[in-house]
């Protein structure tokens, strides 16, 4: 099969070039290309005319108001446009996975050791293999996390509003069954949007269902977890630990007990740092190139009528 | 069909006895057996003489240097020996992955923070997505690690003796090209057997090819890494960090600089803790018993000439 010719602008970019090739495309001049991956933030350098061969344009940002304001999208009604919305779900999921694995492998405790305590650690180190991990919220982050968990042999209980089965999850339950989910899960990852309904979704009652080796990971918003209840559970070692990229309050104030609890890992809302964005965008591009070539539905398609 | 008589030593073990029976064998005294499954760690209790009926011996560890050192394997050139290589591959690979992710996500530094330093961490947190990870040694651990790395969008450069392509790796190079591998890899995971050829495979020259964000993970044997060269690279922040489940010397003595370097994570050879081990070894034994009986190729066959 001939690789799909895809143009990349405004400047050469190794990361994106690799992504295009990994997705099944081949770099081509704009005149010969069927798609254009655009990595420039400003609209002024964007080509005013596009060749008729172009059927799809990938833009680099999640919000695309300025592309509409400049009339770029409206000028080409026959082209499919996609934004970078959701592109950063994978990096947040990777962060959640890093926190969970660090907990299960007892890395916080290892990092304080200054002597070879193998026998003691034999009793602390565990595995995700064969464990059940609940993912609260099956949006982009939750869905990106599922193949990571599958790769180490964990099974997933997904929780969403509709209860509609989430691909890759062993089961999907609705949010009103969250207590049952905590009772059956070995670990919990919180990845749901912050709403009045999800506030303190993880409170004392839910934490009480977990065991002394269970880790709670929050990469969503601080308000979903009742901080005081969590601190109490951590202090009493009623759960294994918590990995929090978001906190309530946020920023976490100096002197807060979460800073010094040995079974808490705090990352200051840095799961999607600016430095990672190019790589995350490259992953988004790779996936969309693959979908474009195989006729799949492109992710983050822009609706010209809706303006986003 | 008469079940195959297989001996189990040095002590009775329900899990392994069940595994032998499930594989199609039947427990027998050593004198009557055609194979021996040995679950004892020490070589001193191993029978000096083996009956002529014994055609296969299954040893309980992945690394078998001490069995060679004691001359046990060389004493019986007509017997097929298998190690437990691969049996614990998945859990060791998961550990390696946890160490690598912890490094890339700057978890050691996060764990020392007691104030919200988001801007600073924005510059430290990285991602495995789009990165190139070299796996030195494409045995069971290396092969088990590949799907984990794939799940976060990393690509793999595998290094083995033959250069025969490793499934799932973007490329496979022979060990004599290790310098080239270090020059092109973002991170390196050492998972090769300890031999005279692999001693100090990772030394000052190789580390010099890595960058200030590169992590080196060793879950194989301490001797593969030149500890002094590694300590120097870590001290000068010439590499991002090291995650070591094995060290040289091992156990790592109190007061060794690796204990307190902020960019080193030491786990005391606990990537395959006893709690996870019996079930994994039993599964390995069951599979090899079945292969032995049906004339299949045994997994983890030891090459007496190669010494592993």
What does this structure look like?
- The structure is a homodimer of 308-residue chains.
- With 308 residues, chain A is α/β, with parallel strands linked by helices.
- Chain A folds into 2 domains: 4-87 and 276-294, NAD(P)-binding Rossmann-like Domain (Rossmann fold), CATH 3.40.50; 89-266, Rossmann fold.
- Helix content of chain A is 30%, strand content 16%.
- Chain A has helices at 14-22, 65-69, 89-104, 107-112, 118-122, 140-151, 178-184, 204-207, 227-235, 277-294, and strands at residues 4-9, 25-27, 35-38, 56-58, 80-82, 132-136, 155-160, 171-174, 187-190, 215-218, 241-244, 264-266.
- In chain A, the strands form 2 sheets. Chain A has a 7-stranded parallel sheet with strand order 8-7-6-9-10-11-12, with helices on both faces.
- In chain A, helix 2 (65-69) links the parallel strand 4 (56-58) and strand 5.
- In chain A, helix 1 (14-22) packs parallel to helix 10 (277-294) and helix 3 (89-104) packs across helix 6 (140-151).
- The longest helix of chain A is centred in the C-terminal third of the chain and has 18 residues, at 277-294.
- The radius of gyration of chain A is 22 Å and the shape is elongated.
- The model of chain A has no long low-confidence stretch (mean pLDDT 94).
- The interface between A and B is large, with 62 and 56 residues.
């Amino acid at each position: 099969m001939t690789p799909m010719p895809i143009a990349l602008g405004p400047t050469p970019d190794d990361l994106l070039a690799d992504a295009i090739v990994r997705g099944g495309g081949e770099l081509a001049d704009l005149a010969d290309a069927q798609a254009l991956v655009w990595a420039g933030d400003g609209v002024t350098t964007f080509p005013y005319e596009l060749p008729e061969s172009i059927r799809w344009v990938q833009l680099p940002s999640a919000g695309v108001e300025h592309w509409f304001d400049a009339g770029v999208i409206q000028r080409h009604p026959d082209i499919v446009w996609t934004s970078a919305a959701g592109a950063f779900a994978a990096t947040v999921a990777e962060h959640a996975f890093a926190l969970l694995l660090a907990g299960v492998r007892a890395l916080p405790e290892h990092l304080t050791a200054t002597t070879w305590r193998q026998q003691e650690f034999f009793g602390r180190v565990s595995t995700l293999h064969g464990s059940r991990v609940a993912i609260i919220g099956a949006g982009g982050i939750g869905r990106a996390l599922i193949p990571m968990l599958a790769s180490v042999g964990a099974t997933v209980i997904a929780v969403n509003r509709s209860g509609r089965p989430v691909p890759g999850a062993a089961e999907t339950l609705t949010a009103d069954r969250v207590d049952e989910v905590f009772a059956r899960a070995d670990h919990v990852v919180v990845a749901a949007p912050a709403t009045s309904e999800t506030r303190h979704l993880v409170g004392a009652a839910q934490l009480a269902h977990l065991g002394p080796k269970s880790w709670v990971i929050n990469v969503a918003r601080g308000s979903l977890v009742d901080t005081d209840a969590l601190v109490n559970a951590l202090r009493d070692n009623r759960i294994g630990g918590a990995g929090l990229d978001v906190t309530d309050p946020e920023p976490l104030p100096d002197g807060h007990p979460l800073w010094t609890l040995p079974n808490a890992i705090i990352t200051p809302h840095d799961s999607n740092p600016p430095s990672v964005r190019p790589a995350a965008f490259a992953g988004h591009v790779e996936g969309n190139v693959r979908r474009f070539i195989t006729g799949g539905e492109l992710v983050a398609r822009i609706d010209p009528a809706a303006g986003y």
